[in-house]
């Protein structure tokens, strides 16, 4: 039986060998990282080494990295009323782009009537003109715009958004979960105030995330209160093994990033050229900068649920969008926000690549698409 092909890396990446080894070593430690004895200090060492690795990777100070249970919790922690930057008053409302992850669209701890949405273009890029208008019509705002979309792969103009937000006296949060390890990301270079990350998207373990804040940010209120871990910003004993795996994955991903990005771009372009040739597929966000590993496509008459099942039966794992909502029979909110009709939004299939994806995997996917196209598409 042929080996299965995994093309759903944006949902989760396989565990890297470096992360596995770091976790296995951490499992042998018995100390609580908050304990002052030798066993506790050894556990603390692993946590702080991982903290330093992530901080170095994204241009932050280690003291400004807060480990959480996942990217979703990190987003909830970031979206907090009352945040203050190095200058300016506390934010009183939240503005989010219409293509954000569900954990951001939920609004964090802002009241529903204090949350507004920023339009995006047909290509999926945030409408900076609309952002300016929204910022000019109310009190200081926290703005949340993702670095890279999890469905289309579209990259957002984060640095320009940061300039607009700061000129209006606001703060910028960036969900960088899909960006880390796939494109260069530096919180200082883009002038973001907060950024969120997740271990399992880069080959670390599931169940570990992080919020990184800019120096001078104040007013961050913990979601979980109790023992005062993470400098009082997130209570609960740290997941030492998971955090160690996160740190190891960060180091491995950053070391391989240039080579991996170039290789995945070549594979993605080959995939998309043949998808178009086989059945006239439409590639979403193809006219803007995208992640090197992500293709979201559709074709006339395609039903995503049926296509995903068809690919699966051919031994290929793909997705119909975000893994957090792909089990629901509903159009992609991302494509709906981009202005596509419900039928189109419900017919999109995502293929996302990773560090071990090779030409043979792409060829297998294209072979499956040739078979499926004959039965799934309208004549």
Automatic annotation (TrEMBL):
Key word Transferase present: yes
Entries under Pfam families matching the protein: Aminotran_5 (PF00266)
Cofactors required: pyridoxal 5'-phosphate
Protein keywords: Iron, Iron-sulfur, Metal-binding, Pyridoxal phosphate, Transferase
InterPro entries assigned: Aminotrans_V_dom (IPR000192), Cysteine_dSase (IPR016454), PyrdxlP-dep_Trfase (IPR015424), PyrdxlP-dep_Trfase_major (IPR015421), PyrdxlP-dep_Trfase_small (IPR015422)
Residue ranges annotated for the Aminotransferase class V domain, each copy included: 5-364
Keyword Iron appears in the UniProt entry: yes
Gene3D superfamilies hit by this protein: 1.10.260.50, Aspartate Aminotransferase, domain 1, Type I PLP-dependent aspartate aminotransferase-like (Major domain)
Gene Ontology molecular function, alphabetical: cysteine desulfurase activity; iron-sulfur cluster binding; metal ion binding
Catalysed reactions listed for this entry: (sulfur carrier)-H + L-cysteine = (sulfur carrier)-SH + L-alanine
Top-level taxon in the UniProt lineage: Bacteria
Family note: Belongs to the class-V pyridoxal-phosphate-dependent aminotransferase family. NifS/IscS subfamily.
Function: Catalyzes the removal of elemental sulfur atoms from cysteine to produce alanine. Seems to participate in the biosynthesis of the nitrogenase metalloclusters by providing the inorganic sulfur required for the Fe-S core formation.
Protein name (database record): Cysteine desulfurase
Taxonomic source organism: Bradyrhizobium hipponense
